[in-house]
Each structure stands twice: as structure tokens, then as C-alpha cells.
Amino acid sequence: MADVLDDSAHIEEEQEEFTRVTQRTKKPRSKIQSTFEHSDLQDSFTTQDLNKLFTELRAMRTEMSNFTKAVMELKTTMAVHIERIDSFDLRLQKIEDKVNEPNRPNQGDLEATICRLELELRDRDQDALINDIEISGIPEVKNEGTFHIIKSVATKLGIDLDERDIVSAERVGAVRAHVEGQAVPRPRNIAVRLVRRAKRDEILREARVRRGCTTSNMDIPGEAKRFYVNEHLTKFNSQLFYKAREFAKNKNWRYVWTRNGTMYARYEHGSERRIRTPT
């Protein structure tokens, strides 16, 4: 019985020794190999899947690059707009500062200045006509000679006028067409520019003395017509003179006249009043 127990013990010792030897001689597996052996990646990922993944990554990189570029362009555009806004703010601030200036002229002063400048411009325009006269009432015929008419008018007024005293002489305004069945339209006025102002003043003076002169014996076709010689006024002053005469007629003012392009009015007795504006 003791022999049987000894043999069993001896067998167990040999088995334990064999196990220890086997464990020492067995080659250990690497960590990577162990991971792939025990992971689902070895079964689920193929070469085609990896290529697809790399393609998507490259596309994503391209999209990110384009997005970054778009962001940079947006920043540049925003910088330009911000600069323009700053410029507008600066200009607006200057305007506000100018509006709020304590010494800035008010609206009434500005309007008064504009009115004064307009009057000065009108006076200068009238001064440019200082050597001019205007003759009205002379019948108008085709192919007429205006220089000859002016000399005839001067002769009628008792003035010796040479063609060398005349710079220009012409009808002014649009031609008034005659409509059958209606009255003959009034003839256009004749604007005359003279070389010397002294000759112009002489003609005006004699025209005032000889008021009521007509075209009789002036070698002008048609029946005799009364003509008038006046200062040549600008369009504005001519309209103003007409309104002044209408006003004087309605208000029983007796005298309205011009002198050197300036209009005056007087009631009956008293000081004269200069007229420069319609009001």
C-alpha cells in the first residue's frame, strides 16, 4: 500500500515539472497580435473600407481648407466695410460739429445773404446793357434793314447818328406769326447797342422830349405807327417794370420810370421809391 502511494506522488511531481517547463519554453504573444486576435476590427475593416475612410478624410481636409479661405475673405471684406463706416462716422461728426457751431449763421442770415447776392447779380446783368436802348412799335417787314431803321428813328428825334455809332441792332424774341381772322400781332422790339453811353443818353433824352413820335416820313411801309424808345432792360427787370406799372395803376400811383436800368415809383408828391423785387 505504501508503494502505491509513493508512485502516485511521484507521478504528480513529474506532471508539475512538465507544466513548468512547458510554460517556460512557450513563446509569448505580442501585445498587438493579442489585440487583433481579440478585437472585432480584424473582422470588420477591410482594405476597401480603409481607402474609403482616407478619401473622406481628404475631402474633409479640402472642405476645411475652403472654409478657412472663405473666412479669411469674409474678414477682409468686413475690414473694408468697417473702414468705410468709420469714414462715414467721421464725416457725419464733422457735419454735426459744424451744425452745432455757436457762431454758425442762422437760416434768416443765410436767406438774407442769398437775396443780397441775387440782387447783385441782377444789377450786374443790367449794367451790361448800359449802352443799349430798345425801340418798340416799329412795324416789322421781311428783309428789313435794322441799321436803316435806327438811323431813321434818330433823325426823327433830331439826332445825327452814324452807322459807326451802332454796335448792333436786331429784333429780339420769337417771331409772332399772323393768324388769319385775328388782329395783326405786335411787332418785335429792336435792341440797339451803341458805342458810347453819351449817345445812348442823348437818344433817351430826346425821346422823352418828343413823346408821341410816329413812323410817318420814315420810309417804313404801312400806316404811321407810334414808336417808343426806352432803356433796354433784362428779362427779369422788364417783367418787374410791367408789374410795377400794373401795381401803380391799381393803387393810383402816378409815376413809374426807369433810370440807368433801375426802376423807381412815386405816388404824386413825395420821395421816390426804388423797386428791386416784386414784393
UniProtKB/TrEMBL annotation:
Residues 234-271 form the FP protein C-terminal domain. InterPro entries: FP_C, Transposase_22. Signal peptide: none annotated. Residues 1-38 are annotated as: Disordered. This is Jg9016 protein. The gene is jg9016.
